[in-house]
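Sample entry (482 residues):
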Amino acid sequence: MTTTAVFSPELESRFATARQVADAVLFEGYVLYPYRASAAKNRLRWQFGVLVPPAWGADREEPAFQRTECLMEPRAGATLAAEVRFLRAQRRTVQEARPDGTFETVPELHLHDRVLVPWDEGIEERVEIVATVAELTGEGIVVPFTRPAGEETEPVHDTDGTLVGRLVRRYDEAVGVVRLSVSELDGPYRVMRLTAVVENTTTWAPADGGGDREAALAHSLVSTHLMLCLTTGSFVSMTDPPEWAKGAVASCRNRNTWPVLAGESGRADLVLSSPIILEDHPAIAPESPGALYDATEIDEILALRTAALTDQEKREARGTDAKAAAVIDLADSMPPEVLERLHGAVRALREITEPGPSGLSGAGSPIPPDPFDAPGVSRPATPWWDPAGDAGLDPATDQVLVDGRPVAAGSRVLLRPGLRRTDAQDLFLHGRSALVEAVLHDVDGGVHLAVTVEGDPGADIRREQGRFLYFQPDEVALPEDA
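Predicted structure, serialized as tokens:
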């Protein structure tokens, strides 16, 4: 078994595709719009994959460890490469230079293009392990790791080169352990269960037995996640396992994380175990212009709102964090064609001449190509969003069959929600009589009934404003006297 500072070029190449997603996991929610330290939502930091010191987290909801269990089918002589990734909180204070050559800690330091403020930065850390599958059988291996405490200073100069202050960065020791083991399962197939535990083992504890989360974060592993790669063989999908493996998958215990297949689509030799819910083979949207570091980010909205910040707000954001400054610069320099592609993208189309997915994608292109330019795909004479494309449809006269009988505007139906219940309000509508106001068709070929509930005192207002309730044909029934 070996632990190395850097993977071999071959392993680095295998990990490269998955690292794009892993980087997004690492910095998910790192700094939230409007990217200023003074914003209320940026005062409670680090929400994902936080492994706290055991002494502090024992009576709290945040864990000190992650446990990953997944199935794999290694070939003879296979080697497993594991990479643990996390952030370490680095406390940054701001000091202003005094005429006597000393420095005084201040709440903010104003420069021409930014306002420097105290802030917790994230230091990216990695623990890399390489071991043969044979070495992992039985008790497995235990790999402890330590990242020492330290302090750094960075001088701050004004535009004319005058020293006006400095940034002082302090970080505490991070101590943890990785445990890897493999066990072979009984059955007709040679499948093995891999168990990987990442644990914060720091001995730090608050002096009074209490302490707050901010103090504990200085000794925590933040955004912790794990990547696993087999040199030969494959992993079994935990999200969509084959029929023969479903029982074994159900017996796996995953705590505070979940493994999915990662890397290139169609391959199964790499797993990303993440504290954020992902699907197999997650990928960064090719339209995304860059990292925005905002949890559950929506690129178009964030880009527009960031560009609309005032100059003073942008100065504060630039002084908060280097990554926040990069987001501001990205929004200010984004060309119109890049912003336009954020408005929407077509991943696949149905061919007009022969039904079925075309499998087209703009992945890998700076600007996705027009999918209608592909061979075998016909451009419709009228776009789907053009009202003229629905010239043959009329909500006031169209009909749909319910229980074998036609239903149109003016028909009375009984509401029977349940198959697609999405909120508690449906419980109060079940069995109520309603009047069909229109029969509507969506662009995917679905049919919806717009209705008003009989006895609703606001029905006239709903008709006037066009604010109806919507049900599909299998969610209604005809009254007996219809």
